[in-house]
Amino acid sequence: MFPAHIIQSLDDAPRVAQPRFPIYGWLGLVVIAIGYVLLFLQLDPWRCWFFVFAWYGYILFADACVWRFEGASLIRSRFRQFLVMLPLSTTVWVVFEGFNLRLGNWEYQNLVNPLWVRLIGFAAAFATVFPGIFETADLLRPLAIRREWRLLGWRLPRWRMTIRGEAIGAMLGLACLLLSLLWPRYCFPLVWLGFVPLLEPFNRRLGVPSLYKDLERGDPRRIILLLLGGFICGGLWEFWNYWAYSRWVYHVPFVQYLKLFEMPLLGFFGFPPFALECFSMYHFLVGIGRPRGDS
Q1: Measured between alpha carbons, how far is 31 from 19 in angstroms, rounded to an integer?
Q2: 100 in any annotated domain
Q3: Which listed site, 116, 135, 201, 245, has its alpha carbon 20 to 30 Å from 216?
Q4: Which pLDDT does position 266 carry in this prediction?
Q5: What count of other Cβ atoms lies within 10 Å of the Cβ of residue 148?
């Protein structure tokens, strides 16, 4: 059965039959508005934190909407999981920042000083990646009410995952990551593809939610919603970054000539697979950190 929420099943979470819209949802909109006011008034150093205001406000508002529609949500039903998700999100994005030292695809401008304040800002901003994507995917869940998916009249088949197939996929995933480092000018997009086939075999064996398990059941709904959620979050990232004072700019080979906001148009196609990578990396970290014997 498709889990009630994208990141993890909330079937065991208490539900409210007719939930009201939580007050923190309205607070989220206020936080976004405050960020805009501080930005347009050019109040230092607060205008440097616009991106943080926008994303935490959005996460609060999105979670409140999920609670209103579903009677269960990440923040209201699994607050401890939400708190754990924040540092894991920062950790994973630092991995991609490490790749970017070699790729050189983006750089940051107008950063706040001193350095220790800047690092706090980085950690706070990077922490929004996981909850932003997962909350957005949860908001799209009404699109996934059908239990049987068909393509051109044919029901989508179940995938049979073999040890050999998993090993080949893992090697291809590792190759994607290595190629992006060895030939960054030509292979830089592969960094947004490699972690899914590399980590999913481990997720299946760790007993955590897994995209491979979904494919084995012939159920692509979580994958589709994550892809859509990643695309929407990508649009929000670039929209808010475009107006922000502290921001990033791109240096992407071959495609710099055609952009939407600061992102080259072709770059938007990297956000959907990145959402799948976030799902796989998050559950891998949760799985390896879980005490033995936990179900």
Answers
A1: 23
A2: yes
A3: 135
A4: 87
A5: 8
Count of structural domains within the chain? 1
Within 183-267, residue ranges assigned H as helices are 184-187, 195-206, 211-216, 221-243
Q: Are 163 and 180 in contact (CB under 8 A)?
A: no
Nearest to 239, CA basis, from 25, 65, 50 = 50
In a domain, 4, yes or no: no
Asked, for residue 251, whether it belongs to a domain, the answer is yes
pTM of the model as a whole: 0.89
In sequence order, which residues have a C-beta less than 8 Å from that of residue 17 and are 6 or more positions away? 71
Pairing verdict, β 106-109 and 247-250: antiparallel
d(CA 137, CA 145) in angstroms, rounded, equals: 13
Q: What is the dihedral of CA 127, 129, 132, 135, to 10 degrees?
A: -90
Q: Which domain holds residue 124?
A: 23-289
What are the pLDDT digits (tens) for 273-283?
999 999 999 99
Q: At 71, phi and psi to the nearest 5?
A: 80, 10
Instruction: Give all strands (DSSP E) within the chain, no chain letters.
Output: 106-109, 150-151, 154-155, 247-250, 259-260, 263-264
- Nearest Cα to 109, choosing from 242, 236, 234, 233? 242
**pLDDT at residue 8, as a whole number:** 55
